[in-house]
Design goal:
CATH topology: Pnp Oxidase, Chain A
Strand order of the largest sheet: 2-1-5-6-7-4-3
CATH class: Mainly Beta
Strand content: 35-45%
Order of helices and strands: HEEEEHEEHEHH
Largest sheet: 7 strands, antiparallel
Structural class: alpha+beta
Helix content: 25-40%
CATH superfamily: Electron Transport, Fmn-binding Protein, Chain A
Length: about 160
């Protein structure tokens, strides 16, 4: 399993929304947004709050891909691996369920917790990082996309 770095963890925390891809029984992709993706001790986890198809797919085929992109930094990561569906009562399940409820409220159901055994991590960079001439700094890119999305950074 490949450990998640501090930069990867920071991107996950900043984006607050990731997209999880699994494979349906007919071979078609299933894409599910997740606001519960988190990192603990270098390992990825997310909660099944309202994703029965994702869990069904992972029980049949544990292949998973998670994409996380910070829209302002124009970069992120693609995590590939094998998913383990943790049942209620498991120690790791309880750790993540407690975090979800502390973050969102006690009324949020946590049906399962999914732990990712990461086998591949690929950085994702937009063309703003690759093709801009002269190359732009991360601060310049962030400022440009704050303006494009008409968003003011907190404290600005």
């Amino acid at each position: 399993m490949i450990k998640i770095t501090a930069d990867m963890e920071a991107i996950i925390k900043q984006t607050m929304l990731s997209f999880v891809a699994t494979v349906n029984a007919d071979g078609t992709p299933n894409l599910s947004p997740k606001a519960s993706l988190t990192v603990t001790n270098g390992v990825l986890y997310f909660a099944d709050i309202a994703s029965p198809r994702t869990i069904l797919n992972l029980r049949r085929n544990p292949a998973i891909e998670i994409n996380v992109v910070d829209i302002f930094q124009r970069r992120g990561y693609r995590f590939k691996g094998r998913a383990l569906v943790l049942p209620p009562g498991d120690g790791e399940y309880l750790m993540i369920a407690d975090w979800v409820r502390a973050t969102n409220g006690p009324e949020y159901p946590v049906n399962h917790v999914v732990k990712i055994e990461t086998t591949s991590i690929i950085p994702l960079l937009s063309p703003a990082h690759v093709f801009a001439r002269p190359p732009r700094s991360q601060d310049e890119i962030r400022s440009t996309y704050h303006q494009k999305y008409r968003v003011k950074p907190i404290g600005a």
